Amino acid sequence: MGWKDVHRWLGLTAGTLAVVLGLGGAILAFDPVQQSWQATAAPSDLSAATLVERVTRSIPAAQEIRRLPSGAIVVFSFVGDQAQATYVDPADGRVLGPWQPSALPRWVKNLHRSLLLGDAGRWGAAGIALGVGLLSVSGLVLLLRRMGGWRRLAARVRGSLAQRVHVVVGRVVLAVLTLTSLTALTMSASTLGLVALDAGAEPEVLSVATGQAALPVAQLAMLQSLPVQDVRRLNFPADADPEDTWKVITVQGEGWIDRYAGRTLAWRDSTPAQRIYDWALVLHTGEGAWPWAVVLGLVGACVLVFWLSGVVMWWQARQQAPHITGNSPLAQADVLIFVASEGGSTWGFAQTLQDALRQGGHRVHTAALENFETTATTRQVFVLAATYGDGQAPAHASHALAHIAKLSPGAVPVTVLGFGDRQFPAFCAFAVALEQTLRAQGWPTLLPLERIHQQSSQQFARWGQTLAQALGEPLVLDHVPRVPLTTALTLVSRQDFAGPRESNLQAPQAPQAPPAAAILRFSWPAQGPGARLRGLGLARFAAGDLVGIVAPGSAVPRYYSLASGWEDGFLEICARQMPGGLCSTHLLGLQPGDRIAAFIRANPGFALPRTRRPVVLVGAGTGVAPLAGFIRRNDRHIPMHLYFGGRDPARDFYFGPEIQRWIGEGRLETVHTAFSRVPDGGGYVQDALRNDAARLRGLVAQGAILRVCGSRAMAHGVTEALDALLAPLHLTVQQLKAKERYAEDIF
Ligand SMILES: Cc1cc2nc3c(=O)[nH]c(=O)nc-3n(C[C@H](O)[C@H](O)[C@H](O)COP(=O)(O)OP(=O)(O)OC[C@H]3O[C@@H](n4cnc5c(N)ncnc54)[C@H](O)[C@@H]3O)c2cc1C
Ligand SMILES: Cc1cc2nc3c(=O)[nH]c(=O)nc-3n(C[C@H](O)[C@H](O)[C@H](O)COP(=O)(O)O)c2cc1C
C-alpha cells in the first residue's frame, strides 16, 4: 500500500468525520475571539496581592479569583447560599456584571470533542485526530512528489479545478492541520486518562494558628511578587476553618500560603505533562490568543473544501482509471502483467495480452507497475512500460524502479516490453532501465527486452509470435488501438512559411509553392464543468505543453509543442511539413474553419517555474514555438533572452514580427539570431551562443534558467557550446539539468 492509497482511504473514512470536527472547531473558534474582545484585562504590572485587595473591597465575601485565558478576571463568592460569579475590572476592583459562560450551545463542544457519543465518542474523536495527522503527512509526501520537491513547492499548480483547489488549499493549511491533530491527540491522552497531568495528591498543609489575626493580603510575600498575568486561580482561606490556607495556581505551578505567618507552606512546579497540555490547549483552541483562533477557525472551515475537492479527485481518478476486464485476484493468478503508462495506451496493449493469455487457460492479474510483486502461484511476469520526459518513468511509476531494486529476486521469469517513440533521444529508456535492474537483481527472463515504436500493433503482434514460441502455446496478439479521447479544434488562422531556396526557386508567394511550415491558430469549443469532469474536454494547458493530434486514418497521435497557453484564448502551434508525413501533411492542408481531433499532454519538466531570475531561451526552426509562448505570457517582464536559429530570415524566421513587438513591449530583453543558409547569416544557433559567451556566463552566474527546443542535432550542438563556455564557472549542462535549471524539448 503506497502513500496514495493511505491518503485516499483515510480521506474517505477519517476525512469524512473530520469534516464534522472541522466545522465544529470553526464554530468554537468564535469563542476565544469574542471573549478576548469583551475582556477587561489586568495591567501588566499589577500584583496578585493588589488585585485581592481591590476585589475584597467590592466583594467582601470573595472566595476565589480566576483569570480566564482571555485575561478577564472572574470572582466567585457566596451571598447567603447563593453562589455568584462576577466579572471584575482589575484596574479598580469594580464589579462589571455577572460572568457568562460561552454563548455557544454546549452540544457544539460535545460534537467536536466526542461526536455526541460520550466516552466512546472521545476515543472516536482521538482516532479521527490520528487519521487527520496521517492524512496531513501522506498529503505532504504526495504534494512534494507532485510539485517535484521542496524547492518547487510554491510553483504553479496544474490539473483539474478539484486538483488545483486541493493542492493550493493543502499548501496553505497542511502545517496548521498537522499541528491541530497533534495537539488534539495530546489533549485526548489526558482526557482519556492515559497521561496524568498533576503530581499526585495535594500536600497536607495547614495554617498554624498563633492566636494573632490573619495577615492582610498586602503582607503575603508570594502574592506580592506574583504578577496577575501568571495567575490561573486563587482560593481564599475559608473563614469557618482557622487552619485553611491560601492556595494559588499559576502558569508555573501551585503553592499554599499560611494565612497567619504569610509563609509559603508548600510549592510544586507544574509537571512537564501539564506544561505540554497547556501549550496544546492554546494551540488547539486559540484561547487567550484570538488571532490564532481566527487562523484555526479558517482552517477548520477549509477541511470541508479539502474533503470536497478530494472526493471529486477520487471520483475523477476512478472514472479515468484503466478498466481491465477479466482480472483474476493477485493470489490466484499464474501470470502477472504490470503496466507503466501516462497516456493510457499501454493499458490497452496489456488488455490484449491478458485476453490472449486467458484464452490459453491462464489466470491473469494486471496492475500498475508500482505494485510489482510475485506470489506463490506466479509463473510468468510481464512488464509493459512506456517512457516519458527525458527518458523517465510515467508519473505513477516514478518510484517503481527503486521499489523493484529493493526486492529480493524471485525465480519467476520477468519479461519487459518497452513502449516509446524513436523521435525521442531516450528511446524506451525507462524500459531499458527496468530490464537492466531486473537482470542485475538476478530475475530470469523468458524473452529479451523488445521496444515498440509508436504503439505499433504489427510490432506487438510479432512479439506475440515470439512469446507463443517461448511459452510453447498458441497465442495471437491482435491489438486494435484505442483512439485517445479528443476534442475538436477549429482552425482560426494560419501564417505560412515557404520552403528553402534550393527546393523552391519560385517566389515564396507563388501559388504553386507549397508551404514548408505554418503557424496554426485554433479555437476550442466552449466547455462546461461537466465536460471536464468526464475527462472529455481540453485540460488547462500552458506554453511548452504538447498537443496530441490524431490525423484521419491514424490511431497514433503526433505531438506538437504549444506556442500559447489557455489564458491566451487560442491554441497555437508551429508545424513543419515532413516529406510524406501523415499528420504534418494533414495540418498544412487545413483551411480556416477546418477541424482537427486533439488532446493535451502536460510537459511539466519543460514548463517555466514562477521566477524572477533571467531566462535564456534557445530554439531552432519550429522549436521556437514554445519559447514564443513563454515570451508572449511574460507579463511580469522577467529578463528573457532569445537565441534563434533558422536557415533564411526571409523564409523561416517564425514569429519574427511578433519577436520585434515583444521587445518593444518589454516582454523580451534581447534576441540573437543565426541563419545557416545565407551569407554572413551567423551559422547555427550554437554559434550565436559562442559569440555571446561572456554575457551568457554572466546570466548563468546570476542563476538564469535555460530552455532549449528543437532538433536532436541542435540540442547536442547547444550542449557542447554551453559546456565549453560554462567551463570557467565550473558548471556543466548536466549539473544545470540536475538543478532543474536546464530543460530540453527535443523532436
Ligand atoms: C515532443 C515533441 C514535440 C514536437 N513538436 C513539434 C512542433 O512543434 N512542430 C513540428 O512541426 N513537429 C513537432 N514534432 C514532430 C511531430 O510530432 C511529428 O513527428 C512530425 O510532424 C511528423 O509527423 P507526420 O505524421 O507528418 O510524419 P510520419 O507519418 O510520422 O512520418 C515521419 C517521417 O518518416 C517518414 N516515414 C513515414 N513512414 C515511413 C516508412 N514506412 N518508411 C520510411 N519513412 C517513413 C515520413 O516520410 C516522414 O518524413 C514534435 C515531436 C515530439 C515528439
Ligand atoms: C511528452 C512525451 C514524452 C515522451 N518521451 C519519450 C521518451 O523519452 N522516450 C520514448 O521512447 N518515448 C517517449 N514518448 C513516447 C511514449 O512513450 C509512447 O507514445 C508510449 O507508447 C505512450 O504510452 P502511454 O500512452 O501508455 O503512456 C513520449 C511521449 C510524450 C507525449
3D architecture notes:
It is a single chain. The protein is of the alpha/beta class and 747 residues long. It has five domains: 3-29 and 106-197 and 289-316, no CATH class; 43-90 and 212-270, no CATH class; 330-471, Flavodoxin domain (Rossmann fold), CATH 3.40.50; 487-500 and 514-601, Translation factors (Elongation Factor Tu (Ef-tu), domain 3); 615-746, Nucleotide-binding domain of ferredoxin-NADP reductase (FNR) module (Rossmann fold). It has an eight-stranded antiparallel beta sheet, covered by helices on one side. α2 runs antiparallel to α5 (106-114). The longest helix has 31 residues, at 161-191. Residues 502-512 and 529-537 have low confidence and may be disordered.
Give the gist of this structure.
This protein has 747 residues and is an alpha/beta fold. It has 23 helices and 24 strands. Helix 12 links the parallel strand 11 (380-386) and strand 12.
Secondary structure topology:
Blueprint lengths: L2 H10 L1 H15 L1 H9 L9 H11 L3 E6 L5 E7 L2 E7 L6 E4 L7 H9 L3 H30 L13 H31 L29 H4 L6 E5 L10 E5 L2 E5 L6 E6 L2 H14 L4 H31 L14 E6 L4 H15 L4 E5 L11 E7 L13 H7 L7 E7 L8 H13 L8 E4 L3 H15 L15 E11 L19 E7 L5 H5 L12 E5 L7 E4 L9 E6 L5 H7 L6 E7 L13 E6 L3 H9 L7 E7 L2 H4 L3 H9 L5 E6 L9 H7 L1 H9 L3 E6 L1 H15 L6 H6 L3 E5 L1
The chain binds flavin-adenine dinucleotide and flavin mononucleotide.
